[in-house]
Amino acid sequence: xxxxxxxxxxxxxxxxxxxxxxxxxxxxxxxxxxxxxxxxxxxxxxxxxxxxxxxxxxxxxxxxxxxxxxxxxxxxxxxxxxxxxxxxxxxxxxxxxxxxxxxxxxxxxxxxxxxxxxxxxxxxxxxxxxxxxxxxxxxxxxxxxxxxxxxxxxxxxxxxxxxxxxxxxxxxxxxxxxxxxxxxxxxxxxxxxxxxxxxxxxxxxxxxxxxxxxxxxxxxxxxxxxxxxxxxxxxxxxxxxxxxxxxxxxxxxxxxxxxxxxxxxxxxxxxxxxxxxxxxxxxxxxxxxxxxxxxxxxxxxxxxxxxxxxxxxxxxxxxxxxxxxxxxxxxxxxxxxxxxxxxxxxxxxxxxxxxxxxxxxxxxxxxxxxxxxxxxxxxxxxxxxxxxxxxxxxxxxxxxxxxxxxxxxxxxxxxxxxxxxxxxxxxxxxxxxxxxxxxxxxxxxxxxxxxxxxxxxxxxxxxxxxxxxxxxxxxxxxxxxxxxxxxxxxxx
Length: 492
Prior knowledge:
By secondary structure, the protein is mainly alpha-helical. 73% of the residues lie in helices and 1% in strands. It has a two-stranded antiparallel ribbon with strand order 1-2. α5 (82-106) packs antiparallel against α8. It is globular, with a radius of gyration of 23 Å.
């Protein structure tokens, strides 16, 4: 027992556990919101509104183009340009979200006719034009808080968000608003975005001054190359995590969408266990990829240690858990919740593999694993729903996650793992050509993930293989040695 507890003191596992606990707090309080919604509104109203919320989170998360991850990595070393970097990423994310939200609402007659009929074209367009950019910033600002070492504010922010949503939901119920659930979600998001943005505008200059001595100028090629590796794969993950409610509404009805929304909220909380442990893996191993294989195995073990007991409780107790929301949810969603909870177990292998690929910069894996899952889950759910109802969605989730995890394990068993690139090894494949915005020639880029700062602290930093190809040693020449090359002065 003592050895088991001591193993959690490892920085990778300790910080991964902290992220899991933060996600658990947000999920638990967020669950109260859906309990209140299920008690205050009819199932068809919950179904339409939960679909709007799921679509909003899908569009807003996709529209931020993984710039949150880019800021997580580069804001800690941007120095005095940190604020302008954040504002530039915000501007790009907001612009992309405006386009994405507008296109979805204007084309809802083709891909969401039931949603359009229930809400109306005008209100639907207004909701997505206003709420999608706000949600995109809401997603990005958590990464910024973590990047400036204020990650402890993220759980507090999410707690305030959850409580504010519940209060606004009660107001909407009193006013008998059909879209009270979606509107309460959007308004609470806007309030938090405004408050945190005002605070960040004051905190970022102070952060820039404090880190100016170790700052490196930033070029667009580095940012574009960083986000390009993840974005395509992330779209497939989002299509499963947040697109399934829209699929259920289109294939079944609003009552079924309500049940799926509630059951998936519970099951997706289990998925967050692997996500939190995976973020910690990337943060701790990127600086020393030689330990990646051991870290991969450790992450899988620890994630399963947390996850399996929860699954053992949820699977047999799925009906009892859903009865808290009402008899309708227990009668129609018990099998869905049990199967969805089971699917979180093989998902650990998939998440661990994707995060290991981020460290090794194997983009085909970063893209291929979530793409394979989506290609199996979405068509299979579409085929099974008319025959099996929501149980078909649970079968599709379990089949997709299990199949991809089995393929990964077989490949790892049959093919020896390539050694990760070290600081003195060959550079990774080039990312996107040109479009330079930052010069990272002289310093390695530290990686900050959820408040974890990983960086060599030697007096003479080593050149990073991410930016510098290995060069042949140059023989000494007589004469004075030129001084160190200083980066260009940062400008705001």
